[in-house]
Amino acid sequence: MKAVRFHEFGAPEVLQYEDVEQPTPGDGETLVAVTASAFNPADNSIRAGNLRAIPIALPHTPGYDVAGTVDGRPVVGFLPMDKDGAAAEYVVAPTSALVDAPRSIDLADAAGLPSVALTAYQGLVDHAGLTAGQRILITGAGGTVGHYAVQLAAQAGAHVIATASPSSRDAVAAAGAAEVIDHTSTDVVAAVGEQVDVVYNLAPSTPEEMTAYLGLVRDGGVIVTTTAWLPAPSDEARGVRGITEFVRPDAAQLTALVELLDAGELTLAPTRRVALADLASVHAEAAAGTLRGKVVVLP
Fold first, then answer.
1. Domain extents in the chain
2. What sign for the dihedral angle of Cα 109, 110, 111, 112?
3. Backbone phi, then psi, for 161, in 5-degree steps?
4. Residues 60-86: pLDDT tens digits?
């Protein structure tokens, strides 16, 4: 079968489109015929060798989000990040990680759902414990995780304040943000004004910005961040918790998100399709900081 792998850490050029043996599932595993995988920023960091906390074996196949079929059954899943991924024609997945794919969208586009939607859900529900009537600031809301976080927070009955650039302002507002702050031209802390119950940081913030966000959180509140390289600060004296989020597979949560999508209560982030043979070009865009939106990769 065809797959993209890297045999050493390094620049996007280490990615090779090559012939490899089709994997064989073991106990508790299922062979998935890949319709599409998805590119995520962590794929870039793992390939570059900047995320050694995830212990992978070389050569490694990236792509931990998958949409495909199992004996004709459409499935999606969030795969273990330390195992070979789905940037291939076939992938072996833990059977427990696979759920029925959404019926309301194209199967290839569904590859863009699992890890980013789970990140938003777990950040808001598991870590922040967001409830109706609370105020939440979501920074970096114009990104893919932000697309789902704003929708889920608004559906939970929270007052959503979001930061976004002018190019994504309308989309963030349409997703359910009550207030949208242009972080490129506005002092975010000053614009928020009244304290919030939750800060959900999805942006590559500086230590100074994170400290300022901490000051926005009311006593007893929480700040959750997805920036593993910059942990969330806390303030024990005020009872403010700081949580650095690491997304995990959860089939029940993913099933719930698929059901929301099929019910029209959640919209899919726009996707761009790229051929598997061209995956290195996507990594190059990510490495250069020019990648925008969600990319799904078709074998």
1. 2-113+268-298, 116-244
2. positive
3. -110, 125
4. 999 999 999 999 999 999 999 999 999
**At residue 224, what are phi and psi to the nearest 5 degrees?**
-115, 135
CA distance to 33, 39, 60, 114, 240, per residue, from 10 (Å)? 29, 17, 12, 27, 39
Q: Are 63 and 85 spatial neighbours (Cβ–Cβ below 8 Å)?
A: yes
Count H helices and E strands in the chain, helices first.
Answer: 9, 15
Q: What is the DSSP string of 263-277?
A: TTSS-PPPEEEEEGG
Select from 93, 66, 88 the least CA-distant residue to 19: 88
The burial of 102, by beta-carbon neighbours within 10 Å (0-12 exposed, 13-18 middle, 19 or more buried), is given as buried
Half-sphere exposure of 97 (CA within 13 A, CB side): 25
Q: How far is CA 15 from CA 35, 54, 65, 197, in A?
A: 20, 18, 18, 43
CA 232 to chain centroid, in Å, comes to 18
CATH number for the domain whose boundaries are 2-113+268-298: 3.90.180.10
Q: Rounded to whole angstroms, how far apart are CA atoms 92 and 22?
A: 9
Q: Are 217 and 195 in contact (CB under 8 A)?
A: yes
Q: What is the pTM of this model?
A: 0.94
| Amino acid in the structure at residue 29 | E
**192/181 Cα distance (integer angstroms):** 8
Distance of CA 294 to the CA centre of its chain: 10
Superfamily of structural domain 116-244: NAD(P)-binding Rossmann-like Domain (3.40.50.720)
**What tens digit of pLDDT does each residue of 137-188 get?**
999 999 999 999 999 999 999 999 999 999 889 999 999 999 999 988 888 8
- Distance, CA of 144 to CA of 293 (rounded, Å): 7
